[in-house]
Amino acid sequence: MNRGNAEDGRGGANLPALRGHNEALLLDLLRAAGPPGLGRAELAARTGLTPQAVSKITARLAAEGLVAEAGRDASTGGKPRTRLRLVPGARHAVGVHLDRDGLRAVRVDLAGGVVAQCSGPLDFGAGPETVVDAVVRAVVRVSGGDGEEAPPLLGVGVAAPGPLDWRSGVLGRVTGFPEWEGFPLREVLAGRLGAAVVVDKDTNAGVAAVGPGLSAGPGGADRPGPGGTGGPGGPGSGSSVYLHVGTGLGAGLRLDGAVYRGARSGAGEFGHQVLRLDGPPCRCGGRGCLEVLCLDAVARGDLAEAARVLGEGAANLVALLDVDRVLLGGRVVAAAPEVFVEGVRGVLAARALTPGPPPVVAPAPAGVAEGAAELALAPLFGHG
């Protein structure tokens, strides 16, 4: 066995870490397989683990209630092989979307299915104390605080306006809300809730909700990719951009199957690219930003113009990153998805530098709150 060495910068994983890695690997495969499940031999073939190792790991997972039998394969002459499946209701996670004027919370099972939700108005400008209280109430409500028996809580994901540092969960200079700068949202919520908390930008949660397992189908509708774990490039492959149009405008990026946040958590400030020099002032302090141009058109009721402006920004991203698909979400898009699909698709086609511009999908298959919950589930399945 190659243990690696400190001199070449490589090192081995200790046994507990390796065991956790292998458990996450099997759980991820079973999650992607859905109710039909997979046999132990197939799990071994896909992971490179020995059948004995798979049996030991799945026995531990079954003892924890995470895995159960899904039936048996038809006999081919020998003993029929038992298939295993993930038990969605064994654990849950909560996702919270903090918008500038509203809050939505969901509780999801291990398969990502929503089992409880609530929503209501929120004044993000009222300051951290008021917002934290609202988040705690929402988490308690969807987690069964009314006496409902609920499975163990894995964690809480919170999607908030950026910029913020997703590693520390500390908010930055949120446009229009200077009182939030430096507030340790993750630390405060973890203390109040007594649970693991992850904080990320709303747009990153939006693209996390989609996952790498979707590929564009006919007519731009998303469908699971082969095996449910990736598009044409295989498991974990695929690049998407999620454009969120609501009270603000931003982007979430999934590149090569993983959410891309940038070295300083600053990736995705899509709305503040300048489209018109010396254009109207933006609340970020710049002029002629995509956000102000798009939202001004929305305010005038000219959604076709808003879609065209959004398309110009999307075309810039597509030319820069060559993504596989463009997903549109947020309340503005949800109110008129066909208008935005047509407008963005038209600009992408007109400005395409390569054959076949990426498909445009609206609304995105899942919401920001669901994506925040997915971020809380991610460690169980070995995703960062």
Task: Give a description of the structure.
There is one protein chain. This protein is of the alpha/beta class. It contains eleven helices and 17 strands. It has helices spanning 15-33, 40-47, 51-63, 128-142, 185-193, 202-210, 290-299, 303-321, 331-335, 337-351, 368-377, and strands at 38-39, 67-72, 82-86, 92-98, 102-109, 114-121, 153-160, 164-165, 170-171, 197-201, 214-216, 222-224, 240-245, 249-255, 258-260, 325-329, 360-361. The strands form five sheets. It has a five-stranded mixed β-sheet. Strands 15-14-13-16-17 form a five-stranded mixed β-sheet, sandwiched between helices. It has a three-stranded antiparallel β-sheet with strand order 1-3-2. It is globular. The model is unreliable at 1-13 and 213-237 (pLDDT under 50).
Based on CA inertia axes, which overall geometry fits?
Answer: globular
Radius of gyration: 22 Å
* Element-level helix/strand string: HEHHEEEEEHEEEHEHEEEEEHHEHHEH
Compute the separation of the termini in Å. 27 Å
SSE map:
Layout: H1 15-33, E1 38-39, H2 40-47, H3 51-63, E2 67-72, E3 82-86, E4 92-98, E5 102-109, E6 114-121, H4 128-142, E7 153-160, E8 164-165, E9 170-171, H5 185-193, E10 197-201, H6 202-210, E11 214-216, E12 222-224, E13 240-245, E14 249-255, E15 258-260, H7 290-299, H8 303-321, E16 325-329, H9 331-335, H10 337-351, E17 360-361, H11 368-377
Parallel strand pairs: 4-7, 7-10, 13-16, 16-17
Antiparallel strand pairs: 1-3, 2-3, 4-5, 5-6, 8-9, 11-12, 13-14, 14-15
Helix pairs in contact: 1-3, 2-3, 4-5, 6-11, 7-8, 8-10
